[in-house]
Amino acid sequence: MTKIAPSLLACDFSILKEEVNKVKESGADILHFDVMDGQFVPNISIGLPILESLRKNTDMIIDTHLMINDPEQMIDLFCEAGSDMVSVHIEATPHIHRAIQQIKAHNKLAGVVINPGTPVELLSSILADVDFVLVMTVNPGFGGQSFIETTLNKISWLNSYRQEHNLNFEIEVDGGVNEETGALCREQGADILVAGSYYFKHDDYKEPVLKLKGE
Questions:
Q1: Has 144 been labeled as part of a binding site?
Q2: Is 82 annotated as a binding residue?
Q3: Which residues bind a divalent metal cation (predicted)?
């Protein structure tokens, strides 16, 4: 069953607690929490205080996506603040194995993220060590962008690789996900769909969850 992870980057932060409650009631599986440093990506977003508050007010799985340079400097803090899943970009550190091991030391699910312009084959040396791979289907930094269709090849490659090597990492997709692009991602083997603008534009939050799951 496909898991749905609404991205809080697109929610109304003035009523964050209410938004999170609606996400849970809608049947979504995961809360996606985007962290941007204004250096690795050209934007700055939410950080530790929001995560700590979020953790106190929900029992949902929190998936923290670190779009930051030198993620090793912050991994411990975001794990301790309440993340259940933490992912780092392969482009953001020369020591991706160390970063993954650092996340796992906190007994959290560890993920590696890949940008649209990065060859997916570069992940082959880390795939046996991660719990999930996050495929960016837009260039990270801003919500509301259009889906880059060539990234479907990355999802397909990852799905074939895990079958060939008998691995069990999940494939997560983030960027431009809606009813149509979500279906394309599912067809290629995606397990988790992150949706921001598409999800939060609906008044009835159950509707996008059902559509993204293909029900």
A1: yes
A2: no
A3: 32, 34, 65, 174
> What domains can be seen in the chain, in order of their start residue?
3-213 (3.20.20.70)
Q: Which of 29, 34, 63, 131 is catalytic?
A: 34
Catalytic position from the list 29, 37, 63, 174? 174
* Chain mean position to CA 39: 19
Print the SS3 string covering 141-187: CCCCCCCCHHHHHHHHHHHHHHHHCCCCCEEEEECCCCHHHHHHHHH
- Phi-psi region for residue 10, left (φ > 0), alpha (ψ -120 to 50) or beta? alpha
Residue-wise pLDDT tens digits, 45-72:
888 999 999 999 999 999 999 999 999 9
Q: Is 84 an annotated catalytic residue?
A: no
Query: Would you state the torsion angle of the CA atoms of residues 93, 95, 98, 104, taken in this order, to the nearest 10 degrees?
Result: 40
Q: Cβ(173)–Cβ(190) under 8 Å? A: yes
Q: Is 95 marked within a binding site?
A: no
Largest CA distance in the chain: 47
Is 141 annotated as belonging to a binding site?
yes
Q: What is the pTM of this model?
A: 0.96
Distance CA 193, CA 191 (A): 7
164-188 confidence digits (pLDDT tens)? 999 999 999 999 999 999 999 999 9
